Amino acid sequence: MKKVLIIAHSFPPHLAIGSQRPYRLAKYFPRHGWEPIVLSVKRSGKLPDQIRVIETDYNDIIGILKSKIGIHPNKGLHEQLGINVDKDFKYQSLKSKLIKLVKEIIAFPDPERGWRRFAIKAASELLKRERVDAIISTSSPVTAHLIARKLKQIYKIPWVADLRDLWTQNPYKNKSWLINFFEKRLELKILAYADVIVTVTEPWIETLGIIHKTKKVYCVTNGYDSDDFPELSSKLTSKFTLTYTGQLYNGKRDPSLLFKVTAKLIKENLINKDVIEIRFYGPKEDWLIDDIKRNNIEEVVRLCGFLPRNEVLKRQRESQVLLLLLWDNKNEAGFCPAKIYEYFGAGRPIIAIGGQEHVVKGMLETTNAGKYTWNFDMLRNALLEYYGEFMKSGKVKCNSNGIIENYSYNSITNRYAQILNGLVLK
């Protein structure tokens, strides 16, 4: 069996959503002729069974700096300095913007750069001992690609740069123009060594092609693991629940339209406030609390905080409807959050709120897994339709079709293995 080294800063037991793609690929690769070896950061907790993982030390660059200036290394700078952060960057204070710029300079190209030397040393020891047929580096963080580039230079092993997020073309990276200038040069320099680039949505192939004109770019989406959903929960919530799981990225996942529509429907007595419940599993942010109060729906919205991933999956499966929030920004049209694949696996209907043109719109239409909305009236109609179904039968039915299976990680890993096979057979 051929071997592939997967360089992934996020990997279980780390619970971040970014750890799921490398973990599921590693889990399913043996079914498709590849033995995975994962290079990651040493963390407390249990490693996945039957996956070979090489753990390394790691220097937390920002944490070390905080300690040196006498503040807590694991708490946010803004919190410790008493500086509020507005969800709109242009309204943030000068102090807040200066803190951001200093962090960008110190942590160039990303805060995980303190992993690089440890990872290269550990990978080099492995590659001197045994044959590895291919390398995959997955970002973010982009430090993973810096590690892979160095290994490619030394050992001449075929390398796939896997971009779960775009690098400098990422609309969520609101970096200063100076940092962005140098980072674009770095992206070109590093990815010039990659044999192929893999990304997670079709529109991003075109986006990456603008600056990587000579590179072959493939799309291999994220997905869901059917093992996480051995059977769909038969016990749904007794209320008409809408559930959102994950971060809100300082308002770029903005539920304000949902709050306005819900408040209006309650005021018009079209929805009973004692029947509906909107649940958020993630960070409790000040601006979110303010939005809830502004719309007078404190009795309807529950901020539940973080839960372990297995508990989050249970909350998804029991919910009448799952909520997908997208940024209404043309630069995000090709961005597909990994959360939607978990929602596919949960087998519950989805309401998505985003911009008029978005890759998620087509996915929901082809899979029949939910409704895509981008304005007040569309969201109002979607809520009323699902609410009416709930009031009539006590549950909302999911009508997704067989196309959902294309997003299972077994199918996805098979497509990835074909790319690796093409590199090895060259």
Commentary on this structure:
By secondary structure, the protein is an alpha/beta fold. It folds into 2 domains: 2-60 and 109-223 and 408-424, Rossmann fold, CATH 3.40.50.2000; 227-405, 3-Layer(aba) Sandwich (Rossmann fold). The protein is built from 15 helices and 13 strands. The chain has helices at residues 20-28, 61-68, 77-81, 94-106, 116-129, 143-155, 177-191, 202-211, 256-267, 286-294, 309-318, 339-346, 359-367, 376-393, 409-424; strands spanning 2-7, 34-41, 52-56, 134-139, 159-163, 196-199, 217-219, 240-245, 276-281, 301-303, 321-325, 350-353, 370-373. Strands 3-2-1-4-5-6-7 form a 7-stranded parallel sheet, sandwiched between helices. A 6-stranded parallel sheet has the order 10-9-8-11-12-13, sandwiched between helices. Helix 12 (339-346) links the parallel strand 11 (321-325) and strand 12 (350-353). Helix 9 (256-267) packs across helix 14.
Summary, kept brief:
40% of the residues lie in helices and 15% in strands. With 426 residues, it is α/β, with parallel strands linked by helices.
Topology at a glance:
Layout: E1 2-7, H1 20-28, E2 34-41, E3 52-56, H2 61-68, H3 77-81, H4 94-106, H5 116-129, E4 134-139, H6 143-155, E5 159-163, H7 177-191, E6 196-199, H8 202-211, E7 217-219, E8 240-245, H9 256-267, E9 276-281, H10 286-294, E10 301-303, H11 309-318, E11 321-325, H12 339-346, E12 350-353, H13 359-367, E13 370-373, H14 376-393, H15 409-424
* Number of discrete helical segments: 15
Determine the fraction of residues in helical runs and give it as a percent range. 25-40%
Mean pLDDT: 88
Q: Would you tell me which CATH topology of the largest domain applies? A: Rossmann fold
Low-confidence stretches: none
CA-based shape: globular
The CATH superfamily label of the largest domain reads Glycogen Phosphorylase B
The domain tally reads 2
SSE string: EHEEHHHHEHEHEHEEHEHEHEHEHEHH
CATH class of the largest domain: Alpha Beta
Name the assembly state.
single chain
Portion of residues in beta strands equals 15-25%
The end-to-end distance, rounded to whole angstroms, is 17 Å
Name the strands of the widest sheet in spatial order.
3-2-1-4-5-6-7
